[in-house]
Amino acid sequence: MKPPQKRRVSLARVKLQSNTVFRMNILFFTIFLLFSVLILRLGFLQIVKGEDYARAIARTEEVPVNTSVPRGRIFDSAGRIQVDNTPVNAITYTAMQTTKREEMMTVAKELAKLIEKDDDKVTLRDKQDFYIQLNTESASKKVTDDEKTAIAAEAITEKEKQRKLDALVREKITEEELASLSAEDLEILAIYREMTSGYALAPQMIKNEDVTAEEFARVSERLTDPNLKGVNTMTDWKRVKSSDLTILGSTTTPETGIPANKLDYYLARDYSRNDRVGTSFLEQQYEEVLQGQKSVVKNVTDGRGSVIETIPVDEGEAGKDLVLSIDSELQSELEKIVEDKLLQLKAGPSSKLVKDAYLVMMDPQTGEVLSMVGKRLGKDEDGKQVINDYAFGTFTASHEMGSTVKGATLLTGYTEGAVELGEVQIDEPLKFAGTSQKNSIFNTQLFNRIPMTDLMAIERSSNVYMFKIAMKIAGAEYQYNRGLYVAPESFATMRNSFAQFGLGVKTGIDLPNEATGYMGGTTPGSMLLDLAIGQFDTYTPLQLAQYISTIANDGYRMEPHVVKEIRAASRDGETLGPIETIVEPEILNRINNTQEEIDQVQTGMRNVYIGNSGSARGQFSDAPYTAAGKTGTAEVYFFEKDHEMNGQYAINIAHVGYAPYDNPEIAYAVVIPYVTTDPENVPRANNEIARAAADKYFELKNKEAQSASNLIKAPYSNSVVIEGE
């Protein structure tokens, strides 16, 4: 019985051994197959796809970088430079896409050894962050574990938690600790903050003011130094004005860059954050013309983001030049006239409120603005009286213009059938219930009746004649000491007609922020009468100039403009560049009057200058040229919050005119607000400025014609206004 048992055990052992061998064979075969697949795959990648992957590793990326070009220059009508570009040495830094903050700090430390950099732009936040960077470990310990736990428990994002933690660290840095930063540390920080202020591959201006020849040379010699990687030297430029004329406008500097409120607008147009942009007047209005086309290079980077080659793509093009319609010599001479008269007025009696004076001169047939003068009295830091340029006030400040608008009132009367050519009206003081007497200056006695034609009404400046036109338009009858009802539509009728001349609407000047003036209400009815004599709605000096220009130009309202040509940049620096655009005269509308009606008003305005009762006869009757115009005074009240004379009664004076009478070359408007607080002694400075300005124009006219050329000329003025100063 025992031997069979042994045989069964032996057979089982053999069978188990046989299965084990079989399984091991399968395992080894599987491993063999896997290694075979791996070897085949590696061979495939190396032999078949090797070149493709090698190219992928060496793959480059082309990144375009815009480089600024000189901004277009501005010239006056005679080719004199008004705004130029002055070259300056500059030091820049360009970060790569892979550049780390630690690398920037190394460069900043090295650069600080070569140049001097003011730290006046370093902020408290900059100092705090810099201190933390220098003392990371000790600064982080300022926040307790409990404070960290409290922040971590807040239901906010991880970024917000880190932001709160960083802010808490900054709060705990003491003034004594910040004071420990040395002058050298602050200089490094000043450089470092400029490096980090822009985008990768976009050059950042480190220093472009007062870079000495030694600094420029030291940095240039070490441009290949690995510790100065990204640093470069170049020629930058500054915007320099040869005039303090405000309408030339201003630009930002590379330090200020694009204004925050317009950042998205300009970035969408391929600007860089530190680009100069126009911020006011001509520089702003013609930004796209002056900015030019940036040069473009492509930085070729490897797979790690390092630049391996820079390829020029587009050399760019300097900004286009503007040629103005303003002659800087005429402008300067007219400024002197206005300044002298303003100082004379201020030194006279009852002149505490006078501070501004304006003069606008334009070509009534083309709309070219020949001069825009605005002057404002002020005080300097020492309390000394100075005169500042306020030319932009000619189209942004509005005032009651008085009788100067009576030409528009008479022409409106013709259109609305309220008066006929040559019609006689009785000038007599008018008395309405609840109001003071309304009369002409020359006729104040109640029930004194003076027959007057339309021509006489303009020459003698009859208020009552204009009152009666307004009442006729409104369909109202005058009855002594009775109320006056005027339908609101009558105000609209008058204002719509005035708008044809440019009064109360935008003139279309090619400058930003033009004002339209103040439009009063429609009650009480007597205000319609005041509207008819220029003592209700307000207008700008430029609107007044466009108005008289429209009358001078036989009813055609021209759009005023201060730029007459756009030229390519000069090719040789001696002559103006080729003309690319000529600003053609633009007719906005023609007034709804016949030529005969316009001629009648022109005749009346001519009589203002030469008639026996003309209000400007004393200044213009002996002029060596023919001219016509209209004077104006307006009774107003001075309103300026917190001013000691707020609510004070005062007088505005104005003057409009044109010459020569038969073929006008110039139309002009003079405005002096709050010239006096004494209505019994109103100066005639408005008429005197108008005469002196017209005289000066004709005096310079032949001289300008003889000197006309395409040459670039030196500025007429010795003024120098540097960008950023």
UniProtKB/TrEMBL annotation:
Family: Belongs to the transpeptidase family.
Protein name as annotated: Penicillin-binding protein
Domain Penicillin-binding protein transpeptidase stretches: 358-676
UniProt keyword list: Cell membrane, Cell shape, Cell wall biogenesis/degradation, Membrane, Peptidoglycan synthesis, Transmembrane, Transmembrane helix
Pfam families: PBP_dimer, Transpeptidase
Organism: Planococcus antarcticus DSM 14505
Mode of membrane association: Single-pass membrane protein
UniProt KW Calcium keyword: no
Cell compartments where the protein resides: Cell membrane; Membrane
Domain Penicillin-binding protein dimerisation positions: 68-311
Principal place of residence: membrane
Keyword Transmembrane: yes
Record-annotated membrane-spanning stretches: 21-44
